[in-house]
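Q: Could you fold this chain for me?
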Amino acid sequence: MNDPTEKFLRAFEKIKAEVNYLAGDPSSGSFQLEKAAERDSVIARNRRLLKYIREVRNVLQHPNHKTSGDAVLVSETFLEEAEILLERLKNPPTANSVGVSLKQMMTARLTHQLGDLADRMKQKGFSHVPILDENDVVIGA
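A: Sure. Below is the predicted structure, expressed as structure tokens.
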């Protein structure tokens, strides 16, 4: 087997372990994709890719052809896609990783004039602005 293929097979084993862990069945020998998809939104959103990765792995591990050599070669880009997915499964995005701090966003107070606020929103391209109270607690948008 070529190097990307070997790396892919190792990545698949890690993906399978992560999927089975998220399915609540870490010791399972089979790929618990559907069970994991019911419990985890990252798995559910990537179900199609995960099925394809499983199919490629099965073709590599259980070839149906009689000739010697690989029937399928894993490309570097496909290997990279599988490794990125593995990283996403291990470290799913959190609100903290995609959010912005209060200091970085445009906010308004109950005392702001609507006309001025609308002008600022239009100028800066905002469609919604959090409304804060005197303690910087969001009370509306």
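A (continued): Residues 3-22 form the longest helix (20 residues).
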